[in-house]
Amino acid sequence: MNKITAAITAVGGYVPEYRLTNAELEKIVETNDEWIRTRTGISERRILKEEGKACSDLAVPAIQEILSKKNLDPAEIDCIICATVTPDMVFPATANIIADKVGATNAWSFDISAACSGFLFALATGASIVQAGQYKKVIVVGADKMSAIVDYTDRTTCILFGDGAGAVLLEPNNEGFGVLDTILRSDGKGREFLHMKAGGSLKPASIETVTAKEHYIYQEGKAVFKFAVVGMADVSAEIMERNNLTANDVSWLVPHQANLRIIDATANRMGISKDKVMINIQKYGNTTAATIPLCLWEWEKQLQKGENIILAAFGGGFTWGSIWVKWAYDTV
Predict the structure, then answer these.
(1) Are residues 139 and 81 in the same domain?
(2) Are residues 186 and 171 located together in one domain of the fold?
(3) DSSP 83-100
(4) For residue 324, what are the β-bridge partners?
(5) Are 86 and 168 members of one domain?
(6) Rounded to whole angstroms, what are the CA distances from 64 to 68, 70, 87, 115, 165?
(7) What is the per-residue pLDDT for 78?
């Protein structure tokens, strides 16, 4: 009997309608369109502006698209894993809320918090569950409402982030398709360069922390950029080397959409030409855990069965990693 692998068999995505353009940001903070595009590659980002809407409301339509594509009853889903750093609330897990909203009454569910690498960590976890042979239909969703933790008076961070969600369905495969190798890493020393100062047990919310704006993203951009360029590029090259993959063997690089310069550095390190790199940062900005599945969602119709795809990310924590996927289906 062939080894069971976990194959991606469907993809779904969702971004809010509201577009926050660079031109609008020029009216809010001291910046300009050319400066933003030159340094990040971003032209606009989507923002969930509706009152009372949260991270789960981004994930639900992405998952519903998968259910529709596969003609699945939500009760058939065995597990939902949500990668996010902007949960609806501290507890319960946002995945629990998502399962309830989509009607996945038989699914167990939990969250993974690994910042921009969250989808990769969740995908590896979901693949392990499927490969163990106990569960047959696992949904992995990356979803973040970054606008909830962005300080729109801080021009160093407000230009970067957007809201969105992307999801994949994992199912057993015995033909050699799916998640074939993973390299995941973390280094807690990186927390000083990218974090939220307050809101956790170390520094609970108070009038003082709110007044000091300590519930927003704090980032030391130069330090994060330096680590990201090296970490994301090296781990992507490493996964190719240990699996004897050349640039010609790889059909697509699917990088985390944080900064166009980091993406270019990763592709160069791998020897991958730009026409084989999925890039949508110009439209959505950095949606954190949602960037990689949103790329798969947008490029799904171009993907062909048997293609080798390398996923790569770097995030706060620090967290970083790369996953080799052999695509399992042609889109009709």
Answers:
(1) yes
(2) no
(3) E-SS-SSSSS-HHHHHHH
(4) 181, 310
(5) yes
(6) 6, 10, 19, 24, 12
(7) 98
Out of 259, 280, 286, 308, pick the active-site residue.
Answer: 286
Residues paired with 21 in a beta bridge:
44
Which amino acid is it at 165?
Answer: A
Annotation says 195 is catalytic: no
- The tokens describing 195, both together, are 């974090």
The single residue of 116, 173, 259, 295 carrying the catalytic annotation is 116
Q: Is the pTM of this model over 0.85?
A: yes
Q: In 3-state terms, what secondary structure has residue 28?
A: helix
Cα 205 to the center of its chain, rounded Å: 27
Alpha-carbon gap, residue 324 to 180, rounded angstroms? 6
Q: Does residue 159 share a domain with residue 262? A: no
Q: Annotated catalytic, 256?
A: yes
Structure tokens belonging to residue 305: 């069965």
Give bridge partners of residue 196 from the DSSP assignment.
217
Given a cut of 50, the residues of the chain with pLDDT beneath it are none
Contact 155, 96 (CB under 8 A): no
* The domain boundary residue, chosen from 119, 151, 176: 176
